[in-house]
Amino acid sequence: MTNRKAALLIPEREDSSGDSLSYLKHVSRIKHEIFNGYFGAWAGILSRWFNDLAYFDCFAGDGRYVDEHGQPLPGSPQRAVGIAASLVSKGKKLSLTLGFIERDGSKAARLRESLGAIATPSGVQWNVLAGDAHDLVAEILKTLRNRTGTVPTLFFVDPYGHPLPVPVLKKLLAISKSEVLVNLMWYRINMDLGNVDRFEHFNYMFGHEKWIDQQFMHLTGRAREESFLKYFEQEVGAPYHVHFAMPYSPEDKVAAPDKRRKFYLVHFSSNPRAATVMKEVMRRAEKNLAQLYGSLNQSSFDFAKPDNLRISELTRTLCARFPAGRQITFRDLLDRTANLPYVQPDYRQALKQLESEGRVNIDRRESKRTGLTDGDIIRFQ
User: Fold this and answer.
1) Residue 306 confidence (pLDDT)
2) Is this structure's pTM higher than 0.85?
3) Mean pLDDT of the residues in the chain
4) Neighbours of 60 (CB within 10 A)
5) What is the CATH number of domain 307-380?
6) What 3-state DSSP class applies to 30?
7) Diameter of the chain by CA atoms?
8) Architecture of the domain defined by 2-296
């Protein structure tokens, strides 16, 4: 039976057991596409060098949703199991272990049932863990530290809504070849920063009380948002971190939803190549946001700037970072600037522009004629 909430025109649907399925907003679908794109790329790339991979979703939910027509949509747990099954089924000697944490026991049970309906090869093992993420991750950490050999591990976490504090994120990132994708709920954080009754929650999140003396506590609007995000990234302390601002969804019925950030996806790693791959996935997601809100030139997402402005900024940044006489391969240049919000096509366009202006010389040792690839040598003039 379908029950429609007339005010929002959002459908709900019951499954065969009578449990209702939640409506998945359009922006949340794009978040899932980012996850889908990165998880697939992460597993595909690392499986070239490692036979064992692991993934943990620390706020899994039941993973069952519907669209505006009441049609079922998979959640990130179902997507992860499906991607893992597809990859292992291609004949690679690969083992993928997936763990899904959900503190609501009934949701955990529904997730377990849903995942059980997905056909998986023997190389894919998954488990649904019902309980508090903080307690369960402590046990997971013990297990991961006792592993023999390196097992690249990806974690999907929410440090505020489903508390997994910064000190724990640091422990996760201390594991060899680990990465953390953070769902940072800015709209909730911003509301609570002005509520003294919520300060203990921030003490727990950061693991100390020093946050209250930071600059963002004296700022408002976009300045506060950017200052908080920068502080959060500094506190986690990973060498490489890239973020993507997710706006309010049209269904949220707020003023100018495309101009306001609802939450951020922040990716932390110790490998610049991981950041480069994630930026490519985020840039693709930007195009889907544009379909919701129109021209990217009129929106305010971090990656969404007009081509001429983005390339102009990048050329200035590169000339500032690499003085005249500096020689570097294209691959090393990408790695050394992995935290910048630019993707490879941006770099190619910027460097070719600098080449035409005589500000760089490119020795194309690997690419042909006007191309630009990893081993090509760039000399700043």
Assistant:
1) 57
2) yes
3) 89
4) 28
5) 1.10.10
6) helix
7) 70
8) 3-Layer(aba) Sandwich (3.40)
